[in-house]
Amino acid sequence: MGKSLTQKRRREAEAEQERRQEESGAELPKTADAVGTAAARPSKKARTEDRRSIFVRSLPSSATSEKLTEFFSEHFPVKHATVVTDPKTKESRGYGFVTFTDAEDAREAKAKLDNQLLDGRRLRLDIAEPRSRPTATNNSARAIADAAAAADKKKQREEEMIEARKAPKLIIRNLPWSIKTSQDLAKLFTMYGKVKFADLPNNKGKMAGFGFVTLRGKKNAETAIEAINGKIVDGRTLAVDFAVEKTKWDEMQQDEDVETAKVEKAEKENKKAAKEPKEPNATIFVRNLPFTTTDTELKAHFDKFAPVRYARIVMDRATDRPAGTGFVCFVSGDDAKQCLRTSPRNQQTSAVGKHSVLQDERIDRDGRYTLGGRVLQLAQAVSKNEATQLFEDGPAAQRAREKDKRRLFLLSEGTIAVGSPLYKLLPPNEIQLRETSAKQRMTMVKSNPSLHMSLTRLAIRNLPRHIDSKGLKELARKAIVGFATDVKEGLREPLAKEELARGGQQDREAEQLRRAKGKGVVKQAKVVYESERGSKVDEASGGGKSRGYGFIEFHSHRWALTGLRWLNGHAVKSDNGNKTNRLVVEFAIENANVVARRKMLEERSRQPRPPPGSKPAGQAEGGDRRGKFGDNKFQNNSTNSFNKNSRDSRDRKGGRRDRDDKKDGKKDSNSGKGTLDPKAAKGSKASKDKDGKGKDGKGKEEPKSAKQEKVDAKLVARSQIIQRKRMMRKKKGGR
């Protein structure tokens, strides 16, 4: 340790002496040959360093000295590694140097690690050659000046690298629509370091789907990339990487090595070939590709079948890695058809077919369709619109739609972000109300699987007491108009396409029906009232007071979402104007069983009623099938009872029936006693059909007064009530 410190101090002293001689104009070495020899011959240390160093090309733009050191340290001991960066962009220029502890390690590293992948790029390795130096004999002063300039440049580059580590800029792609402000974006990165700047670009008021974040320190940025890249936020997978401006990217591309230049040239040729007019159906879609396959390898493989115009590997946007699929465009469409025709038959050729890595080797006996140990799956390529339609109709989209049948993602709709301008306007009691409501709703839906979120019904809380159902409906209409006005003035973001299509076919049919009937967008508005004892009462009774909450139902989801975003947090003054309430608006929670019963009753009410006198459904020929407690049974029992009671009362009063029976020599068939004479019944019926009236002992019909008919009706009603009570008692006793 002491020896190395002494050597370091000696070198610093020699460098300081040379600098002073240069500043004072001291006499340079007299022997020019000595100077030239010293300049031309590198030192022993330099020669050793060069033999132990390798030159690394084709580095990705995200490469750093730390990553390079970590990559090579996994295989051989590394003394140090350096990635050459652009002084302006602070990004990798595509090449660097790695110095090992031993020259043999450098040779083995070149042989073993050449053409290996680092962040998706194949590295090119060469043994570093000694740097050529000028051999002029009388130019030592200029050499010293160049060395000083190089030292200054190196110092400047190191300062720029330090600055780059302090404030790296990240780009975040595939942002969800819930992140609407730069504050929302910054909240994602606050736990990984201080956010110096956050920006959400937009195009004429519309979100662009990506943003930029500048963190303090490159280590914080790398930690943030590792944590957030690939993270799912509100149903979207985020893609995070270091940001590079277009002009800087062009400068970096110009500084690539010779091998990279060749690759770029090949890519330009492929692009030029792709721009040339091509035949229809000349492109095929390839699945089950090895993840290490490159464009060049894919093109070379299919060149065996026929001339190929270009070949492209599909990259996963979220991970920036190959997705295992690609496209191959042949020069001739007939060649593409022939390639598909001779491909293995027992595979799915649909664009939405199931993917499987496990393949039977017998399906490709000659190995023409095998690449990297995988049997390729080929299909005819389709246009982008057709591919989108196939994906929407495919099983993957169907599974995604069925995954959240309860629509629990709507629970977060209506939540006001902490730190937003609207959140700062809320008083503490309303903040507490919102937090409590969110916890209660989450507990409810987790404890009961029958509960789901309604697409069209809103729950309104914190309503002023003077607002009734009519006033709530007017407020809902005002919300639709206010939202449209805010969007037009650029104060609010419009609904996204995925939000407009969320209701599906049912939403579109409801909207068409509403327009056909000429109705408004608000289907129903209701404020809940209570009595003095606290029980719910009907608003029409006029004897209750508002509980401070209600419900609004719209005809479709788009109007419900529009109303929620305008009404949520909207300030409403009380009737005396002294207090202001900010509404708490959320999607209502419904019970699936209750909703199903409600729909069934609505469908029954829409069915046409049977004409008077016709038998109801289920009673056409087999009698009454409405069950044990059908209304007809009550009617029959009560009618029989009434007939018996009324006859007994008349018999007791006048004795007319007994006298008539004695005169005719038979009993009355309706009395329930004795046996009915068939001949007498037949004669009675014939006389009734002939004369149009029944005959008593005197041959005349007994008239019935209006008072008697009223009494009979009362008796019938009373008998029905008695029978119902008896049946209810029997039913309870049976339990």
From TrEMBL:
UniProt-listed CDD domains: RRM3_Nop4p, RRM4_Nop4p
A Gene Ontology CC term for this entry? Answer: nucleolus
Protein name (database record): Nucleolar protein
Keywords of the record, alphabetical order, are: Nucleus, Repeat, RNA-binding
Q: Where is the composition biased (Polar residues)?
A: 633-644
The scientific name of the source species is Ophiostoma piceae (strain UAMH 11346)
Ranges where the record places region Disordered: 1-51, 256-278, 498-517, 601-735
Alphabetized SMART domains for the sequence: RRM
Q: What is its main location?
A: nucleus
InterPro entries named among the record's database cross-references: Nop4_RRM4, Nop4p_RRM3, Nucleotide-bd_a/b_plait_sf, RBD_domain_sf, RRM_dom, RRM_MRD1_RNA_proc_ribogen
Taxon lineage: Eukaryota, Fungi, Dikarya, Ascomycota, Pezizomycotina
- Name the residue ranges with Basic and acidic residues bias: 11-23, 259-278, 498-514, 622-631, 645-670, 686-715
Q: Which portions of the chain have biased composition (kind: Basic residues)? A: 1-10, 723-735
Can you tell which superkingdom this protein's organism belongs to? Eukaryota
